[in-house]
Amino acid sequence: MDSGLLPRIGVIGTGAIAEALLIGMIEHCHCSGPIRVSLRNEQRSSRLADRFENVVIDRSNQSIVDQADMIIFAVLPDQAAAVLNDLTFRDDQTLINLVAGFPVEELRQIVSPLSRVHRLIPLPPVEFGLGPLPLFPPCEDIARLFSGCGKVIQVEDESAFTGFAAVSGLMATHHRLTATVTQWVASRGVSAENAAAYTSHMFHALTHLESTASAADLQGLARECVTRGGLNELALDQLEELLWFDQVVERLDNIEARLEKLRGTANPDA
After folding, report:
1. Considering 22, 174, 222, 264, which has the largest number of Cβ atoms within 10 A of its Cβ?
2. Residue 140 located in a structural domain
3. Residues 236 and 188 reside in one and the same domain
4. Is 60 helix (H, G, I), strand (E, B) or coil?
């Protein structure tokens, strides 16, 4: 892929994550070149085509591949191998795989002679240019292309993707925590709108602070907020006594174990 040219992009599979990524690419990465999307999810495809003039729906996956420099692959894991086996690729193309449990080397064997295969894990906030984007193997051109969608994390070891994927399993927990705190504030006579605004913006501000901290400093942020006998000490110490944080680690271990068990199931022959 020539970093000096806008690639022609084809998207096979238009689920929620693919839709969010495309919106982020167009609105925050200035991808104004032609983008062809499959009709796998007609509602999402039509919504994208209606919203962006450079998005075109194509009913043929092979036609999408034939007219693309970069293919974003985002079908369901149990359908991935069958879809790819029906397609013919060129050696000058790049494949960006969003399908979980599908290692790069395994993909290369299926899509040969195409060899430039990369894995990417986008999360829903990429629509707004936010969130982590682990990329394997590292590639500066691709990192620059997606940089407007969030923080691109170039990964040297593909096995790290299991850990990243496990952490993404805490998104619902994070939202539930914010919603619970918001309801508690509102129950004290604050309007629901003001309670939501305060809670969500407080967590957003704290997350921004975390995003600017080094890995070492991040480990000490919690205790830096604590004043002896203060409010933060009361909450933190009681949660630690309940082993709440140990339970979070235990849940991550469980998610990781499930991901390891599912690894390779994207290809029924693996």
Report:
1. 22
2. yes
3. yes
4. coil
Locus of tokens 């293919």: 71
At residue 177's C-alpha, the angle toward residues 174 and 182, to 5°, is 130
Asked, for residue 161, whether it belongs to a domain, the answer is no
Q: Summarize pLDDT for 71-97 with one digit per residue, the tens.
A: 999 998 889 999 999 999 999 999 999
Long-range contacts (CB closer than 8 Å, 24 or more residues apart) made by 155-160: 158/103, 158/104, 158/119, 160/134, 160/136
The answer on 151 and 18 residing in a single domain is: yes
Q: Is residue 269 part of a domain?
A: no
Domain count, the chain: 2
**Count of residues in the chain:** 270
3-state secondary structure of 116: strand
- What's the domain range around 240? 169-260
- Tens-digit pLDDT profile for residues 1-29: 444 467 899 999 989 999 999 999 999 99
